Amino acid sequence: MGGPAPPGPPRTRGSVDDHGVYDDARTYYTAEERHLNTRAGPRTRTYSQNSLFKQMERLGLQEPYRRGSHDESTIPHSRRFLIQVEPTLQSLLAQEDPDKNMQITIEDNGPKVLTLRTAASNGHNRFDIRGTYMLSNLLQELSLAKEYGRKQIILDEARLNENPVNRLSRMIRDHFWEGLTRRIDASSIEVAARDPKDWTDDPRPRIYVPSGAPEQYEYYKKLAEERPEIRLDVQLLPEKITPELVRDMNAKPGLLAVDMEETTDPKTGKKTLRGRPFVVPGGRFNELYGWDSYMESLGLLVHDKVDLAKSMVLNFCFCIKHYGKILNATRSYYLLRSQPPFLTDMALRVYDKIKHEPGAVDFLRTAILAAIKEYHSVWMAEPRLDRVTGLSRYRPEGLGVPPETEAGHFVHILEPYVKKYGITFDEFVDAYNHGRIKEPALDEYFMHDRAVRESGHDTTYRFEGICANLATIDLNSLLFKYETDISRIIRSVFGDKLVIPEEYCTGTSLQPGHVETSAIWDRRAKRRKLAIDKYLWNEEEGMYFDYDTVKREQCTYESATTFWALWAGVSSPKQAAAMVTKALPRFEAFGGLLSGTKESRGEIGLERPNRQWDYPYGWAPQQMLAWTGLYRYSFTEEAERLAYKWLFMITKAFVDFNGVVVEKYDVTRPIDPHRVDAEYGNQGLDFKGVAKEGFGWVNASYIYGLQIVNAHMRRALGTLTPYETFVKAVEENRAKALAELE
Length: 742
Ligand SMILES: OC[C@H]1O[C@H](O[C@H]2O[C@H](CO)[C@@H](O)[C@H](O)[C@H]2O)[C@H](O)[C@@H](O)[C@@H]1O
Ligand SMILES: [Ca+2]
Known about the structure:
The protein is an alpha+beta fold. It contains 25 helices and 24 strands. Strand 2 and strand 3 form a beta hairpin. The ligand OC[C@H]1O[C@H](O[C@H]2O[C@H](CO)[C@@H](O)[C@H](O)[C@H]2O)[C@H](O)[C@@H](O)[C@@H]1O binds near residues 404, 453 and 458. Its EC number is 3.2.1.28. It is an enzyme of class 3 (hydrolase). One of its GO terms (molecular function) is calcium ion binding. It comes from Canariomyces notabilis.
């Protein structure tokens, strides 16, 4: 045992690995020597596609269709091109991007072929780049090269025809995570403070600091003084956060401070603060989110970005300490609501990676103490707890109309009131928000609307006008997971005794010094399972449903969140089997799991528009939790199949649509599943030339999903094999192998 690892296969000179063909863009395009044409002698000419075309024209030759003296090198991966960046970019776009959206997709009807000059011939020989995928990769590479200031590059062909699964994984690892990482401190506050949702006339950077973090207040004040040009507005929050306060803060929306760590300024040698980094979802969502962060951390951990996942856990602990909860997200207008809770699992996964490091147990203690406080003060307290069933609901406090939605979202609800009072829309909203107009039916509507947003499923007909009354299978599965995780951690890491310090008692009925043991958490979990079985399980349908705690009846909307019970381990093996045979077929579509069934959504039309968390849309968290849950109950084949379908859909859209990765997909649409126009539309589409961020939880689902499928499937994905073709091939091979045995 032990000893050095066996040597790997010998590396041939000139092989792909040899010169970092797949280096990240910064490394690839900033390495001077890589882009010097070492073969260039006195004959070197600097070609651009433009000058190439002109020259061909002069000679009466046709480009790009003529093959003539083309470089026909057949050595895979060894071909490189000598390219003048800007002129080639311009000709590529002029020719292959007729709809001028700075993306080359299957919808662009250009000739789909462009001739490049090979580096080996000093630019004398030519080679055709063909098809949407290679041309769009060329556009992406040229955009990156330009960004790094390159005028001329030597580009490896292997970057243009790379296996798409490898390319997307590489983009996520080397580019997207970085593009989505934020740090709130002097280094980049302008970027972190930007809020595409800001509805005010003066969207300036603003930060709210909790009263318990005076050192941060000093830090940001100083920063604002030293850099007046960024117009940073620094505000100290009062100790007590009330619905009135949050409503009034809507006139001045801002970022909420998160955790900072002490560090030494390399310039002055003095102690200073540095923001703990976090990943944002992307698009219009440029702040730390609750459940997005958990999903993102699953991808970060696969990519060994453990520090970033750990840092997000610590930011959550800060939020629980200073704001009383893990926030929906860290903007002032989200202050009163949370999101689906995943802290214990997230902390455990990080701990698992760092447990050999000093401080790991302290990290886990901090996270678990925070989770216990959150459990008691948020989820198991009024108004979220329903004392009759013992189950919990999404039911945050708040006043008035949520300001962050896309303009027009509430028009159909508010228009009748606007007419009734004969005032303008804005006047009505202001009067209603400040209580000058009282409309109890609207209060009820917005209580449910806030609950919908806390649930993370904003919006869906499952929840409209009812959400705050529902004990959902989602939330109660997650709380069951908290209970079982906390029990296990107390027993296995803390010797079955965890002392609760004073700061973790506020908002709970615990006394400082109280000792938690696993037994009480086991009892809590047992009680919740019983209640879930009693109120949420439906034997006939073979799945879980929400329970209306006011009407005291089970609901009928079929939601993919039924599979969260598998993820949390709350189902019996019999229930799990019933879900697989009865429920799963109702949710399975071309690209994976539907959010809900078509029957449950009902008819849609002008008066009843599509909601983004209903049929036909599919979301990354639903997929990830279902795969993990199915795996947990040994339904490996089902988990692999669902993961394959999801990954195939994402890879295909990535290949056909210039590297696109979006927030959610229409899982019933094989050709362009990224097209979603419900509510605020899709996020992640809006890029020029090359995608820089993807979308947080979809990035993660891709990386995580590749851990779920087997190696054979991964290879089939790389060749864009549809699931049915893949299965057929597997079956044929099996039949052949069996026949050979006989
Ligand atoms: O601006 C409208 C709503 O946007 C958020 O919801 C959606 O994006 C979140 C970030 O990716 C995600 O966590 C949520 O599940 C999505 O539905 C926000 O969370 C809502 O509170 C907000 O009203
Ligand atoms: Ca285009």
